[in-house]
Structures are given as structure tokens and as C-alpha cells.
Amino acid sequence: MPTFNLYRKMLTVLVLMLIPIIALYVYSNKTSTDVLRAELQNSSRDQLNFFQQQIDTVIHSISQWPNLLIYDPDISNLKDIHHPVGDHLDLETIELIKRIQKKLSIQENSVNWASQLTIYSPSLQRIITSSKVNHLDETYLPSLSAKGWQMTSYAVSEQEREHQFSLVTVSLFSSSRNPEKSNLVLEVQFSSGNIKQMLDAFRGDGQRNPFYYVKEGEIIYHSAANKELVAQLLENLQLQDLEKSSYEIVTLAGESYLVNMERSTTTGWILVDYLPLSEMMLPITKSNTLFYASVAALLLMAAVVVYLLYVQVQVPIKQLIMSFQRVKKEDYSVRLQPKGNTEFTFLFKRFNSMVTQIQELFQRSYLEQIHIREAKLKQLQSQINPHFFYNCFSFISSMAKLQNYSAVIAMSQNLSHYYRYTTRQEKELVTLQEELTFVQHYLDISVMRMKRLTYHIELPDELLLEMIPPLSIQPLVENAVLHGIERSSTASTIAIVVARVGHRVTVTVEDDGKGMDEAHIVALMKRLNYPMQEDMGCGLWNVHQRMTLRYGNNAGITIQPSRLGGLSVTISWHATDKQDTDNEGEPIDGGHLAG
Fold first, then answer.
1. Which of 489, 417, 412, 401 is nearest to 453 (CA)?
2. Count of beta carbons in the 10 Å neighbourhood of residue 460
3. Tell me: the pLDDT tens digits for 400-435?
């Protein structure tokens, strides 16, 4: 019964939400459609009219150039200068022509269009432009017409034609209005490329498609014009009867187009712009899409409710089952993330607490095993290595025979310190100062037995009292001596560097021996994280496990090639905030120590 009541309430809410949405959609759709059509039509007509005025203004400005230049004194003087006896002009005439060319250039650059002003001087028999001067062929003048703007068309390619527009003005001081009988003729020219560029700029983002209808068969297109579609539109338009401006809706191949037309009062050309109604009505289409999305959203809301029930009940149960399966497979790292304040939050917390306790029990058991291995290691370390012991006493015997009592005393003292540290070490943590003092005794013994061995210990003052498990550095140094120095006749150097980077302390032991290749280093690093194998030395493994258990998974040993040429083994751990130690043995001064 409660489920049914909840269902009725949810259904009632959905219906109440749907009613105002439908009413709002119907009203907004009708209003938007009417307003959009009117605004787009007016906006398109206004923009077309403004663009037409721009074109007319530029053409009118260009058409006034000859009338302005004809009164220029330098240009007016050309009618009184006669052709010289030879082909060469005198200096005064050349300077006059240069001044005229400069004025023509200034006039041409006064607008953004690429245009050309040309002066024909029958008396001087020259054609003058802003860039050059040519001889005038008198047979060319009859081809000029002084009856307004003239258009010449020529093919640029198989698909494209270019148009050249020219306006000829006869000097007011001439007795005839005919160019071939005038004493001075001015001509201004520009190509349809200028209009094409302005059409491209007017087209903007590509929604508009403007073109100029000059006359039957002569059309100026923009760069990306669809000429086939333009031809179909012209078949359905009556442009010859257009007086000022108009618009029509033309349907072609199922697509409706709004066509706006504007006739130029200056040139008589007709500017035509067409726009697909589907693009114009795009906001209305988006409004329809929004409505359908709203209806779909209501359906989605019902699905979300079911999903919430699934998430709040079914998913937590499945998480509990899967977590118990992982615990059954002895994966005690599994934890559940409580969310909110529900019954499942209580269950998740109790489950995490249970698994944590189980994990701690197993970890304690594992730690006890590690302690057993440590005890075994200490037992082994407390026993005298026969080979090491034999070598040391052999050295003492030899030095005694040679009556080198200082060497005998030094060896005896180092041996006493060495075995005292290994056999009487009961503390869980020692300072780096104590540990490296012990390492120094070991290295001094090794130096006495192997004269070519040299070592370098670097311990900063601020790290003297940093704590570390005992016998953590000596196994690394012993490996460097046995496997790095003794196995190479040319190796001789061991470097021990202690450093602090941020909150981490690192102890690096390097040698200049043969080292190891990358594959062996990777294999050795993997073996450090697995249980110790029978064929594996316990020194490095024990150090790595003790550091990991004490300081966490971010601590332990890393191995890489040494800058000295051999192997570099580094112990790293998070530095302690407080130093508590009981110093024993001989101290090592902070800084550098070489042997």
C-alpha cells in the first residue's frame, strides 16, 4: 500500500509539471514564430539596403574623380602641350607628368577598391596612369564612350567570368563631347573583384548568399556562390519589373528561401540575397527540441527515482556481498566507503572495523615472523664470520711479525667496536650517528685488509639524531665491498651520502664496481617485495621489510646505476619530527668524512 501511494504521488507531480510546460510551449512557440519572421525579414531588408548604399557611395565617389581632376592645373595644362618633334619629352613635360601621376595615385588610394585612373592626351599623344606612360594610338579613342558606366566581360576560367567597369569623361574645355575629337579625356576603371570582395564581407558567417544581377546573363557572385541554385532562383523572379525593393518566398526542391531584392539608384543593378527559411526558423526548431527534451526529462525523472532506489538499497547490498567475497579470498585491504547517514552507513563502518581488526591480527602475525627473521639475522651477525674473522686475525698476525703495532692496535680496536655493536644491539631504533659510526669501523677494517679501498661518508649536522633501525646501512655497505669492490680489480671507492629532501631522509650507498644491468636491477627490486626465497641473501630483504613495516609502503630500498659507475642502493623514509635517542659509541662529526 505505501508503494502504491508513493507511485500516485509521483504520477500526480509529473502531470502537474507537464501541464504548465505544455501551455508555456504552445504560447511561446506561436509568439516566437511571429516575432522572429517579422524581425528577420526587417533585419535582412535593412542590411541589404545598407550594403547597397555602401556600394552606391563608393561607385558615386569614383565617378566624381574625373570631374574633380579635370580642374587640376597640371592636368588642364596637358591640352596645351603638343607632341614633340622627336619621341622624347622635354624635362618640363616629364616633371609635369610625374606630378600628375602622383595625384592620380593619391586619388586611387582614397578608397579601398582597386581602381585605375587613365588620362588620354591627343595633343601630347600619351596615355598617362599612376604607374606608367604609354604612347597613344589615335585609333583607340573612337572605342571610348562618354555615355555613363560601361561594362566589359571576359572569361577568367571555364567556370568564372570577370567584369570590367569604366567611365569616360571629356574635358570641359573641349569643343566637342566626342572623345575622339576632344583635347583631353579621363577614364576611371574598376573590376568586379572589388564588388566580389564586398559581397564576401557582407556574407559574413555564411548564412547569407548575396549576388548582383547586372543584366540578363551578367551576374556578380560571391566567392562561394551556388551558381546552379542562383540560376533556378532567377527563373522564378521577375527582376525586370523591380523598381526599388521587394521580397519573395521561393520554393525549390522542397526547400523554401526568403529572397530580398534591392535596386541601385546609381547603377541600376539589383542586389539579391536569399536565405533558407530552415535557417531562419532555427530558433523555433530549437524551441520545439526544448519542448520534446522537457517531456523526455519528465520520463527521465521517473527513471531516476527507480535508479535512486536501486542505488540506495541494491548497490550497498551488492557491495557488501562482493566485499565479503574478497575477505573470503584473504584480501583484507578491502574497505567500504560510507555515504550519507543511513542504515548501510552503520553496516559499512562495522564491516570496515571488523576487516581492520582482522588485518591487524594478520599484520601482527607477519610482524612477529619478521621479528623472528630479525632475531635470526642478529644471531647470524653475532656469530663470527669465519672467513672475515680469519682475514682479520691473519692481518693482525702479519702486522705483529712486521712489528707494526699501530696497525695491530687499530685492527683490534675496530674489531672490538664492530662485534660489540652487532652482539649487544637491543634497541629498536638508533641514531644515524651511531649507525654510521658502526659502518665506519667496518670500513676501516676493510681498508686495512684492502689498501685500494677508499670511502666517503657525508652526514649533515641536522640529521645526526635522525632515528633508523639498527644494522640497516651495514648490509648495504657490506654488499658494496663484497660484490662491488672485491670482484673488480679496478674498483676502489665507496660513497655514503645522507640527505634530507622535504620531509624524507635518504641514505645512499654507491660504489664504482661493475654494477648490474637494468634487467637484473628490476628483478632484484621485485624480489625485495616478495617473501624471502632460499637462494636470496637475507640482508637487503630484511632491511627493506623492516623499513616498510616501520615507516609504511613509501619507505624502503631503491636500486639504480651509480654515478660512480657501479651500483647505487638508497634507503628512504619519512623524517621524524622529534629526536629521542641515547647515544652510544664514538660519534661521527657532521659534514664529510673520508677514509
1. 489
2. 16
3. 877 777 878 888 887 777 777 766 666 778 899 999
